[in-house]
TrEMBL record:
It comes from Erpornis zantholeuca. It is a multi-pass membrane protein. GO terms for cellular component: plasma membrane. This is XK-related protein. The keyword Oxidoreductase does not apply. It comes from the Eukaryota. The chain crosses the membrane at residues 86-104, 125-148, 154-175, 196-217, 237-257, 269-291.
Length: 363
């Protein structure tokens, strides 16, 4: 693909192409109006776009199935040896940049797939927000897994296994609940078994991405493009709340079971720094979706409104649980107080009788 892409690029424009195709894209609405733009795409440009899309997907696969395990392993070795060599630090920085770049490409791909009808132009501020968001999120996640695995080596495999199985099975559960037919139009040359293998590999990659960060491209097996075209704020909110709680729990376990090996580390300060770092990633994510997203004008609701509605829903659930507990206490206490209620009713009746007798005497 690389050789063909360079060959097409350097030979473009020298020979007149036999045919061109016309694509129609709509602009992002400005002041409520959206114009449709027609563009001629030659055969060479179309092939270059295909190669670029393939390179973007390959960078995502390489980042989360290659660089992410490599970064985790190198950091684990540094923790055990209590030193960071120059060569290993260079490798870790390159691995982290590779993962961040793969996550950034995943964000841009999901935007272009979801808003395929529009001419999407990503500004430099959006790239900066995505870079900071993914850097804080991935770096803190890897550090938490390494610290937890350094003191509880067996249990870290259980954490990784539960994460992988949960995210691998989640798209299949949604597909089973939707009762949609089995996707047959992925590739004409693939049989049903080949299609199943491709879908399993896709969900495996999806689980690998969600192991370290939020996957911007949500897998939906019932969709022809295999990627959800809707922006689900609630699933994103639930993911980050659960992930923050998981990171806090893993850090708590590391703090409780840490050995004398970590005497040279200020454990409370390290836990606080990692939690603040993850919250900084969430902050830059909110800034991106609120101010820097190229298609924010097409959102039916902003991320702040979704967070407020989610918190209101949680508040209503808590209030409902409190009301049920209070009614249960009243029901439990009411049989014990029946005798007191009867006694009080008798005293009230006697007082009313005495009042009536005194009134009659005065009359």
């Amino acid at each position: 693909r690389c050789v063909e892409a360079f060959y097409i690029y350097f030979h473009a424009g020298r020979v007149e192409e036999p045919y061109v195709s016309i694509t129609k894209k709509r602009q992002i609405p400005k002041d409520g109006y959206s114009e449709e733009i027609e563009k001629e795409v030659g055969q060479a440009e179309g092939k270059l776009c295909t190669h670029r899309s393939a390179f973007s997907r390959a960078s995502v696969i390489q980042a989360f199935l290659g660089s992410a395990p490599q970064l985790t392993l190198q950091l684990y070795i540094c923790v055990l040896q209590q030193e960071v060599t120059v060569a290993r630090s260079i490798f870790m920085v390159l691995s982290l940049l590779s993962i961040v770049y793969g996550a950034l490409r995943c964000n841009i791909l999901s935007i272009r797939i979801k808003y395929d009808d529009y001419d999407v132009r990503v500004k430099p501020a959006a790239y900066l927000c995505i870079f900071l968001w993914r850097s804080f999120e991935i770096a803190t996640r890897v550090a938490v897994l390494v610290l937890f695995g350094s003191v509880l080596r067996i249990w870290v495999f259980l954490v990784v296994l539960l994460n992988f199985l949960g995210f691998c099975l989640y798209p299949w559960v949604l597909f089973w609940r939707s009762k949609s037919p089995f996707p047959e139009n992925i590739e004409k040359e693939l049989s049903r078994v080949g299609t199943t293998i491709v879908l399993c590999l896709l969900t495996f990659l999806y689980a690998g991405i969600n192991m370290f960060c939020w996957s911007a491209a949500q897998v939906e097996l019932s969709d022809p493009d295999l990627i959800s075209s809707s922006q689900n704020w609630y699933s994103m909110t639930v993911y980050y709340i659960v992930r923050l709680m998981e990171n806090a729990f893993l850090l708590l376990m590391w703090y409780l079971y840490r050995t004398d090996f970590y005497l040279y580390v200020c454990a409370p300060m390290l836990v606080l720094q990692l939690l603040i770092g993850y919250c900084m990633g969430i902050f830059f994510m909110m800034v991106f979706y609120q101010f820097c997203h190229p298609c924010k004008k097409l959102f039916s609701s902003s991320i702040t409104e979704a967070l407020l509605s989610c918190f209101k829903l949680l508040y209503l659930i808590c209030q409902q649980n409190k009301s049920t507990l209070l009614t249960g206490k009243v029901v439990v206490k009411s049989p014990e107080n029946t005798d007191e209620a009867r006694g009080s009713s008798k005293t009230i009746d006697s007082q009313n009788r005495s009042i009536h007798q005194s009134v009659s005497c005065n009359a």
